[in-house]
Write a structure and sequence with these properties.
Elements (H helix, E strand, L loop, with lengths): L14 H17 L3 H14 L8 H16 L22 H7 L2
Length: about 100
């Protein structure tokens, strides 16, 4: 990481490498407890590449923000993300085994 991104030095030119370096930089700031810097870096990292089905830009951005907000206590009171619950149904000949899968 130090070879790729040093303070006062521009990030590499290749967008994929630049995104990876910034992603790691964001993770290090988050782990060190520098939350304001981590949030700023997460937003910057998400802007370095266009999200698509061929890369992980959007999932990594979401995970970094989730971890950041969780550390800051900003997820409290937001409630469940989904109301979906599996139905009890028989999936094999022994009903007890089928129900156990959904208990």
């Amino acid at each position: 990481m130090r070879r790729v991104s040093r303070p006062g030095r521009a990030l590499p030119l290749c967008p994929r490498v630049r995104w990876h370096a910034s992603l790691v930089e964001t993770a290090l700031a988050l782990m060190a407890g520098r939350f304001e810097e981590a949030e700023r870096l997460a937003h910057r990292t998400a802007q370095l590449r266009q999200p698509s089905v061929r890369n992980n830009v959007a999932p990594f951005y979401g995970v970094q923000l989730y971890l950041l907000y969780e550390e800051q206590g900003r997820l409290e009171g937001s409630g469940p993300r989904s109301t979906w619950r599996p139905r009890t149904r028989r999936t094999c000949r022994s009903g007890a085994r089928g129900r156990a899968l959904f208990a």
